[in-house]
Amino acid sequence: MTQISSGSTPASTPKPRRPRPQVMRLTDAAAQRISELTQRADSEIVGLRVGVKNGGCAGQSYTVEYAHDIRPTDEVVEDKGVKILVDPKAVLFLLGTEMDYKADKMQAQFVFNNPNQISACGCGESVELRPAQIDG
């Protein structure tokens, strides 16, 4: 007669989680401009909130506004000494984006170098974005 041992099986070890990618990064010019805006704001702000909204001739546009608080669902990005807060609905559209600041004689604005951007309208005010492809 064969006996089968009911000994304990080794506990499975959870797989180590891979580091979470930073949603966005800033150029030196963008970080400097965010720092300037933060310092001279009329009320206390913790950084800039960045998101994506529907609208415009290409379908979507980037949003940038003062952030007076950090919401529990915000993705907080700290880069070069400043904070940007990313709207959770925009994370997949902004993953891998570099935020820059450009100024010339006619305009000054934040510019998004986004690998998820498919196209943009002629005036540059709106874009078409696809969610980032995440390798699992």
UniProtKB/TrEMBL annotation:
Ranges for domain Core come to 24-125
| Xref: Gene3D superfamilies | HesB-like domain
Biased composition range(s): Polar residues: 1-12
**Pfam families under this entry?**
Fe-S_biosyn
Q: According to the UniProt entry, where is the signal peptide?
A: none
SUPFAM superfamilies, alphabetically?
HesB-like domain
Q: Where is this region: Disordered?
A: 1-22
**Protein name per Swiss-Prot or TrEMBL:** Iron-sulfur cluster assembly accessory protein
Organism (species)? Bradyrhizobium cytisi
